[in-house]
Amino acid sequence: MDTVLPTKDACYRAVASRDSRFDGWFYTGVTSTGIYCRPSCPAITPRRKNVTFFSTAAGAQQAGFRACLRCRPDAAPGSPEWNYRTDLVGRAMRLIGDGVVDRSGVDGLAQRLGYSVRHVHRTLGDELGVGPLALARAQRAQTARTLIESSELSFSEVAFASGFASIRQFNETIKEIYVSTPSQLRERAQTAPAIDHTAPRSAPSAAVSTSQQTLIPVTLRLAFRAPLASNELWTFLAARAIIGIEHGNTAVYRRALQLPHGIGLIELKKPDAEQSYVWCTLSLADLRDLTTAVRRCRRLLDLDADPVAVAQTLSSDPGFVAALRRAPGLRLPGACDPAEYAIRAVIGQQISVAAARTVTARICARYGAPLAHPDTELTHMFPTPETLVEADPADLPMPLARKRTLRTLCAALADGTIALDVGSDPAQLVSELTALPGIGPWTANYIAMRGLGAPDIFLETDLGVLRGAAALGLPATPRELLAHAERWRPWRSYAVLHLWHAASNTDSKEAAQ
User: Fold this and answer.
1) Which of 71, 144, 443, 507 fits as disulfide partner to 162, beta carbons 3.0 to 4.6 Å?
2) Which domain holds residue 177?
C-alpha cells in the first residue's frame, strides 16, 4: 500500500472478508452503532452505507466513535506504514509512538522534526485528520486499557504509567472511548474468555530490587501479523547478544535498557506456533516509561511489519520463492536504541560477529554503568556516547583507525551533530554518517537498516548477501545484484535477511558434507 488509507472499496472488501492482514492499517467506523472496529471484527458485517474509514484510531475517536469491546481495535498491531515512510508524517508517528509528545509536548516533537509547531499540526491534520495531541491521547488510552486488563496495577498507577496528567483525565478518557469505567473493563477482562488479541490478566510478578531502586514488573502481550519466523528472529538476536547487556537463546531474549525516566529490563518470549502475540515482561524504574519500552520492544522484533506484503513483492522474483517458503515471515531485527546500535556497528567493522561481541562486551564492562541486581546475566547498561568520548584509547581493543572513528561518532552523537532516533530520515542519516572519517557506505546503511528499522536498505557489497544471491541463482556481483534488487522495493532490507539466511543454509550444508 502506497497511501495512508486504501480505497474505500478495498477497505470494505477487507471488512466483508474479515481480513486480519489489514488490522492496524485502517479502522472501520460504523455510523449506525457509533463504534469503530478493526477490519477482522467477528461481528456481523455492517452495510456499506453505514461505514466510514479512518487511518488511525485517534481519527475515529475524534469523529465520535467508541472502540469496539469485542474486537479490541486498540490491540491490533501498529500500521507498518509508519515503519517505511520517511516523510514528516511517518517520522512524527514514530516519535509520538516513542512518547515524545508525552515527555516534551508538541513543541518538543516539532523541534525533533525540524519544523514549526504550526506546520506539524497542519500536516498531520491534512493527512490524518487529527493533530499530535489527539494521536498521543489515543495512545495513552490504548496503553491504559492494556494495563487495566492485563496487570495488577492500581488505577492510579495505570493512569501514571499511561501518561495521563490526572486520575480525572484518565477516568474521563476511558469512559469516553470505551463507554466503560476502568473498574468495568477490569471486571470484564476477569470474567470473559481470553481471545487472541486481548491481553489476559496475569499473576503479579515479584518486584526486582537493585541497589538504587525497586523495578516495577508489568507483563503484557505484543500482537503481530502472522506469519512470524520466530526461530530465526530469536536465534539472530541471541547470536549477537552482548554479554552483560543482553542474554538470549532460541526461546527468550532479555536485556537492560536505558529509558527516558530510568532503567528498564525487558524479557521477550518466543511465541508458540499457534500464538499471534509475544509475551513481554518489563521491569521499570518509572512507570512513565512503559509506552516507550513497549514501542522499542515492538521495533526490536519488527512486530508491526506486514509479512504478506513483503512476501507478495519478493515472490514476484522466482529466485525468492524457495527462500520465502523456508522462512515465512522473516523479520528485520531492529534496535531498542539507534545510537547504541550505531556504536555497535562501528565497533564491529571488518570483524566477525563473534569477535564484535567479545570486543563490545569488554568495552561495556569497562564503561557501562553497573546494574546491581540478583540477575547474573544482566550486569551493565550500554555506555553512553558521552562516556565513550572520554574513554581511554588504551581501553578500546581495536585498531587505531577504528578508535578514532568510534570517538568521532560518539562526539557527533553526544553534541547533537548527528541526531539518531526513531524520527531520523534514513537517507539523511546515511549521508551524515558517511561524512564522518572511517564510516563507509556499508556501515552507514547497516546502521540505517538495523538501527532505524529502515525496510528498503540494500547491502550489495556484503559478502553474505553475495553468497546468498549465488545460492538462490541470482546475480552475484554487486553491480548486477543492485540493479536486480530494484524489483524488491520497498522491502530490500527483508531481501537482505533472506539472502543472509540462504548463505547460512549453504554454510550449514557444506559443513555437514
Assistant:
1) 144
2) 88-191
Q: Is 98 a catalytic residue?
A: no
Residue at 384 is within a domain = yes
Quick one: pLDDT band at residue 194, thresholds 50, 70, 90? Answer: very low
Select which of 302, 425, 456, 462 is catalytic: 462
Handedness of CA 126, 132, 135, 137 (dihedral sign): negative
Q: Which three cell numbers stand for residue 263?
A: 532503567
**Cis bond upstream, residue 490 (ω within 30):** yes
The residue with greater pLDDT, 44 or 210, is 44
Active site residue 462: yes
Q: What is the pTM (predicted TM-score) of this model?
A: 0.88
Out of 11, 37, 297, 364, the active site residue is 37
Are 370 and 277 members of one domain? no
In a domain? residue 83: no
Lowest mean pLDDT among 103-112, 211-220, 315-324, 404-413: 211-220
The C-alpha atoms of residue 272 and residue 477 are separated, in whole angstroms, by 39
d(CA 119, CA 255): 38
Residue 225 near residue 23 (C-beta atoms within 8 A):
yes
Domain assignment present for residue 377? The answer is yes
Confirm if 498 and 330 have CB atoms less than 8 A apart: yes
Quote the number of domains for the chain.
5
Asked if residue 175 and residue 100 are part of one domain, the reply reads yes
Out of 142, 163, 191, a domain closes at 191
Closest by CA to 344, choosing from 415, 255, 416, 464, is: 255
- At 203-254, the pLDDT tens digits run 344 455 544 568 899 998 899 999 999 999 999 999 999 999 999 999 999 9
